[in-house]
């Protein structure tokens, strides 16, 4: 008998976590013990709890009553944003794995997990929506969908756009991805299905492993991707190394007919370098779902450009991404149990 403790909350129900837990391919009968962390709060009240845990970590909030005792013989722990505290982990003598169905780890006592050497699996719960949105932005920017709509709504029947010399169908474009993590691979999957040639730069990814996953990607050096791609799509995390990584130098390597897409984080892109390139028409255009200061200020120079598509950080915003995230966590854990490796295993 394997014991799995699940902790639901207002956004992800314990019932869904339990159902996902029962579908783990552990190779033994599964017993699930359910807990809830503030599932009865209003949206605003729960947001306050999230802010507390994001600022102060798992020790800043109370854990569900009885969970510390339940951890004594727990084999697996599955949560969304409920705290995984030091006290819980101190009492977990046989815990084999922790799974959390979100990308951030503010709610987890990471140091304690590291000390006990417990595998920690997380998922990017809105990965599928972001991948969809990325492809949507490629269409929107290269075919002027958003600009055409904006003009039509103001009575303008615009037929000419700055990128007119370069307009073509998506299967004629070479797309270059910078970062080939979970979201990046989902973008590749979609582009492969559309018959689009894909190249990528990610020094931390094994090309042979990507090939075994059935994805068609040509790996190249960073400068090669920027100079050869018709569309550059950014998918890296913000770190000291990636902050302003997409600089004036890299943008200067892009073709005049190339587009830059960003659904990652604004900080990976040098704002002044991008705005200058767009103003001078040194690239065909850009599409951004992330802005350096949100909401965008009315005097932001981006608003004066006619070759950029802007959306208000909504790439991951769907009604089912968070509630259904336990099933994504289930799939990732099962893949890890089968293969012994996972992009979603946190390296502590």
Overview of the molecule:
It is a single chain. By secondary structure, this protein is of the alpha/beta class. It has two domains: 2-125 and 322-339, NAD(P)-binding Rossmann-like Domain (Rossmann fold, 3-Layer(aba) Sandwich), CATH 3.40.50; 127-310, NAD(P)-binding Rossmann-like Domain (Rossmann fold, 3-Layer(aba) Sandwich), CATH 3.40.50.720. The protein is built from 13 helices and twelve strands. It has helices at 14-21, 43-56, 67-70, 86-90, 110-116, 127-142, 145-153, 182-193, 207-212, 222-228, 248-253, 271-279, 325-339, and strands at residues 2-9, 30-37, 76-79, 97-100, 120-122, 174-178, 197-201, 218-219, 231-234, 259-262, 285-288, 308-310. The strands form two sheets. A seven-stranded parallel sheet has the order 8-7-6-9-10-11-12, with helices on both faces. The chain is elongated and about 65 Å long. The mean pLDDT is 96.
